TrEMBL record:
Listed SMART domains: Ami_3 (SM00646)
Superkingdom of source: Bacteria
Domain SPOR: 176-215
Official protein name in the record: N-acetylmuramoyl-L-alanine amidase
Any one annotated GO CC term: outer membrane-bounded periplasmic space
One Pfam family of this chain: Amidase_3
Gene Ontology process terms (BP): peptidoglycan catabolic process
Sample GO molecular function, one term: peptidoglycan binding
Hydrolase listed as a keyword: yes
InterPro entries associated with the record: MurNAc-LAA_cat (IPR002508), N-acetylmuramoyl_amidase_3 (IPR050695), SPOR-like_dom (IPR007730), SPOR-like_sf (IPR036680)
Keywords of this entry: Hydrolase
Length: 215
């Protein structure tokens, strides 16, 4: 079971920038994630299905009582930065957050950081502090006051793609599936100078390359 939290809502608009209101986009991507996961046969819930104000105590109660293993709390940032951020509890490992960040990056959204934040007596964010045993990550898909980010995020299909990738990362995590790493080998040589020449050519073309000796 996965529960999806559409951040803010109603009288709480969240962040604003470039004519965008955070609560509208969080609702849009959360509803999309819900239907996307249901089509895959994944049990899921969503904290709000329309534009309404959810007081913190009501929001965390929905999460705690859901029986979910994971909660994705969807948000968009503001404040003079750029790139996505994924925030996890100070009491949880960063595996889910890192897998989510990798998925967003692979889908074309640069990731600013993955982090946790400590407050007085525990987690700083109430979605981490008060959601009990449900492992909650806060996903900030980008900065809506950044022209760099909004150039990408204003494309609805891109927003929804990021939401799908975040949802799939949660599914993989709940099933114990780690992100795979594929290594591409461009050549193998007996002469070191030939290997270094090819390595240099690949680097000039923008590829990350190195020479590794075997045997």
């Amino acid at each position: 079971m996965i529960i999806i939290d559409a951040g803010h809502g109603g009288a709480d608009p969240g962040a604003k920038g470039h004519g965008i209101i955070e609560k509208d986009w969080t609702l849009e991507v959360s509803i999309h994630q819900y239907h996307f996961l249901r089509k895959l046969g994944i049990q899921c819930l969503v904290t709000r299905e329309r534009d309404l104000l959810l007081p913190p105590e009501k929001r965390v109660a929905l999460v705690k009582q859901s029986g979910a293993k994971v909660c994705i709390s969807n948000h968009y940032n503001a404040g003079g930065g750029s790139g996505a951020e994924v925030i996890h509890s100070i009491y949880s490992k960063s595996n889910l957050a890192n897998q989510t960040a990798d998925a967003l990056m692979n889908a074309g959204m640069p990731v600013r950081r993955v982090f946790s934040r400590k407050g007085a007596g525990g987690d700083y964010y109430y979605m981490h502090r008060l959601t009990g045993s449900v492992e909650t990550i806060i996903v900030e898909y980008g900065f809506i006051d950044s022209s760099v980010d909004t150039k990408k995020l204003n494309v609805r299909s891109f927003r929804l793609k990021l939401a799908e990738e975040a949802a799939l990362a949660a599914v993989k995590y709940t099933r114990g599936v780690k992100n795979s790493l594929y290594v591409v080998q461009a050549g193998a040589f007996h002469a070191k100078d030939k290997a270094e020449k090819l390595c240099g050519e690949l680097k000039q073309k923008g590829y990350e390359a190195f020479v590794k000796k075997e045997g």
